[in-house]
Amino acid sequence: MLQSKSNPTLSKSTGLPRKRFYRARAHSNPLSDSHFPVPVSPSHVDYSLSYPLFFTSSDQADSSRKIKFADIGCGFGGLLISLSTLFPDTLMIGMELRDKVTEYVKERILALRISNHSQYQNISVVRTNSMKYIPNYFEKGQLSKMFFLFPDPHFKEKNHRRRVISMHLLDEYAYVLGIGGIIYTITDVEELGDWMKTCLESHPMFEALAEEELEADPVVKLLSSATEEGQKVARNGGQTFQAVYRRVVPSQ
């Protein structure tokens, strides 16, 4: 276990980073300019920095192993942590715009790797603006799952263009999702839930999963319980609204 005597940001009991040292504003403006490095193309993403157990810099260029799950706006990383052990052979990444929150997730993953030996080597996080740079990170059809859990509702109508689910952005998500890939969304804001469901329902490259498919999918059960926001909603007895859709070939 990590020792916290020399590092007050770590918990003495768990060795994990303390959230109070990494608090940030609940949301950021995704349309504002931020200063962080962005890969020129997916082939320029250095996997060895995020998954050192699986990659070295020398085998980065010709490796066929790719990230398959992307948690967009991953927050404090709760979903990634849960998915890591559920799909131990799948590479997955969280994409977060807030710098302090991203740093927390990095430290959390590092602490979990140290205290759990070979576990949690398949997850990582990157600070980026997914509304602008999704095509810089993923190739066509690369992903099999994308997650949008409790995104910023941007209540004002003039700010709806900042919403992470829109018809325009679904074009990009459809590009990086393989056929059969799944988009998972959930919110505690009914109007936003209706918005996301309407966008997905209206897009020709997505179709809703049947009820029996939702019940059989172990990931669906995590949508409302794995994240800090979901746990907060549950504690307060709030209601959630989810939309889960599959990437399909549009009918002619």
Task: Just name the CATH architecture.
Answer: 3-Layer(aba) Sandwich
CATH structural fold name: Rossmann fold
The top level CATH class name? Alpha Beta
List low-confidence stretches: 1-5
Give me the side-by-side strand order of the main sheet.
3-2-1-4-5-7-6
DSSP strand content:
15-25%
Number of strands: 7
Order of helices and strands: HEHEHEHEHEHEHHE
Q: Give the CA-CA distance, first to last residue.
A: 57 Å
**Shape by Cα distribution:** globular
Share of helical residues: 25-40%
| Main sheet properties | 7 strands, mixed
Gyration radius (Cα, Å) is 18 Å
Mean pLDDT: 88
Based on helices, strands and strand pairing, what is the structural class?
alpha/beta
> Number of helical segments?
8
The CATH fourth-level homologous superfamily: Vaccinia Virus protein VP39
User: Please, how many domains?
Assistant: 1
Protein name: tRNA (guanine-N(7)-)-methyltransferase
Keywords: Methyltransferase, Nucleus, RNA-binding, S-adenosyl-L-methionine, Transferase, tRNA processing, tRNA-binding
Subcellular location: Nucleus
InterPro entries: SAM-dependent_MTases_sf, Trm8_euk, tRNA_(Gua-N-7)_MeTrfase_Trmb
